[in-house]
Hints:
Chain A has 397 residues and is α/β, with parallel strands linked by helices. Chain A has helices spanning 4-12, 15-30, 49-61, 64-67, 77-91, 105-117, 133-140, 159-165, 188-205, 266-279, 287-295, 303-319, 342-350, 376-392, and strands at residues 36-37, 100-103, 123-127, 144-148, 170-175, 210-214, 237-242, 255-258, 324-325, 332-336, 354-355, 357-358, 367-371.
Amino acid sequence: MISKKIAQALEGSSAIRAMFREGKEMASRYGAENVFDFSLGNPATPAPDSVNKALKDTAEKMDPLMLHGYMANAGYEDVRKSMADNLNKRFGTSFDVHNITMTVGAAGGLNIVFKTLLDPGDEVIVFAPYFGEYKSYASNFDAKIVEVEPNMTNFLPNLEKLREKITERTKIVLINTPNNPTGVVYPEKTIEAIAEILRQKEKELKKEIYLVSDEPYRELVYDGAREIFLTKYYRDTIVGYSFSKSLSLPGERIGYVAVPDEAAYAEEILAGLEVSNRILGFVNAPSLIQQVVAKCVDEKTDLVFYDKNRRMLYEGLSDLGFTCIRPQGAFYLWMKSPDEEEERFVQAAKKYGIIMVKGSAFACAGYVRLAYCVSPEMIERSMTGFKKLAKEYGLKK
Amino acid sequence: MISKKIAQALEGSSAIRAMFREGKEMASRYGAENVFDFSLGNPATPAPDSVNKALKDTAEKMDPLMLHGYMANAGYEDVRKSMADNLNKRFGTSFDVHNITMTVGAAGGLNIVFKTLLDPGDEVIVFAPYFGEYKSYASNFDAKIVEVEPNMTNFLPNLEKLREKITERTKIVLINTPNNPTGVVYPEKTIEAIAEILRQKEKELKKEIYLVSDEPYRELVYDGAREIFLTKYYRDTIVGYSFSKSLSLPGERIGYVAVPDEAAYAEEILAGLEVSNRILGFVNAPSLIQQVVAKCVDEKTDLVFYDKNRRMLYEGLSDLGFTCIRPQGAFYLWMKSPDEEEERFVQAAKKYGIIMVKGSAFACAGYVRLAYCVSPEMIERSMTGFKKLAKEYGLKK
């Protein structure tokens, strides 16, 4: 008696969330110190002190009717201005208030973008491996996810396959760099190549194809890599952002969507985003936290913390003989399963209290994802288990 | 190039939001003191002091990783427990943690309920006049709104018509008491009569029909009327609540959905709500404000303030010869248009700076809605304009 789609969703459920729950259960059964939970992208560095200060200041000084009241469905004007100014300063863009819609996190943002753009049967192209939730978001609007097969050598987008998969039904090409689950950061020339393919296809098919960039990890890049902002590479680009990772606020549900004026139908899209925010039931991004992120938009999370974790985990696992993709961004490590059935490997790891997510949850079997947004101590202590696991699978060293 | 549904939504847009924007424009053109904006249900009493205190205390004392981090998609367990305890204490229910899902306001709550229950083509019965957004929420899931014609004498549900409209496609009967837009509060015997009809129809049609109660105005009742909680009248009841009005937090987007264990398929529905929260992009209700409402769940808004406004507006307009439904709850006054075209009446009122919403926005032409969640001074000063309007329409007195 529940809807067919939800009955289906319940069967599939989220492998990530399932592992997260299992980790919590194991922790209560065996003791938290014996569980090494690499399942969820829940930041491990606290929000910067300035967030706490901004919270208290705002609660203290702002008129409560304004602070907790309704505003335009796209958000407070001054908050949107802060977002626009910040982007303009960093990336040389020319956004103004009207280009920014404040959203209930990046998930809320992607849903209003999809609601605004997608008719039933439209296709959204994604590059495997990809965040499994994208499929649910497309399904909300009866659109179809079209997967581009992974490039198993470096996990950069397979551009030849992209070209083949674009059809008259393609409305969106969705990219996510720095990438979840692989930790790969697309180099500029990859972005340029994608843009060139899309421009050709727009011309050939005489229709708009939107490049939607899901950027919750924008600032999480290592080894001196440069943050890239996509609107300057391709006209019809829409950017979704979240403060979940950059300010460690995932539970607060706060982000924005930016649409440049030069994008085709920008005006209609911006109006559509505002109305979608309303009718999908978000109404507006939470008000107090809008004000807080406006005050803290120049802050950054503790990159050094994640960088140390990254090195420790990558080097530790590589030394044990595991094959890992060296992460360049986000806070995920993508590791080849030494078992041809990666689900079996995930189960085997649980014996040692280690929780990982299977690659097939990201449409890429044979790999596993480890989220290293955890305490360094946990990574260190997990190595005993990984050592046994490596031995079990007869890995060299 | 935007989706058909959104293109349509943009044409229709929200009459309420349109008037809200127009009010703001008029205020900047003619001066705020010359505009009397009765358009939007934006509370006029500030959040209780305890909210501010809870905000600062929580920010001060709670571990920021917990305070701003992900939790289960249904919300923090301790927060859900507070909601359950509060309902049990007040209404003699027996909710526990698992019966409560924290939501992004009542709008978010209704959307996850609809997502969980509705297949395309399913019908949702509403009693006109009703909050226009319900139609958009049903459309999100390709379900159909079926309107029961208004009972123009007292604006209580037309029960004979309800009986006629229930079919095999009926999945939900949606009620909203205290009512937006009429301010009517359903008496207990009306609730009992609806319950009886639904029980008969469930038996006759051999299927579940869920009574979904949208209760953002639950506590806003006057003249000593009793707050009513619906689960004890009908087994298959689902309650959606919001703290927007009771704690004056509409911008914060915080509420909950309660599903009693005795409801048919309760377990599946609760699982469905959690997964819907995730895949519709809410992920979870905003974390900090969850903690705050848990601490303030026993607080009430300033009912005396609204009650005074209610009397002043109702008596003022009645004295001028307007025909009004005496409001018993919420903060809306429902007034008969003295012009057979209520849209013309709304336009005429604008000459005097008065902003109202036309009844046809609530599927009930011939009436207008005035939200009296405004300052008493504004009501007082608006009377000069209303007097001219009454004269223009030749009303007696």
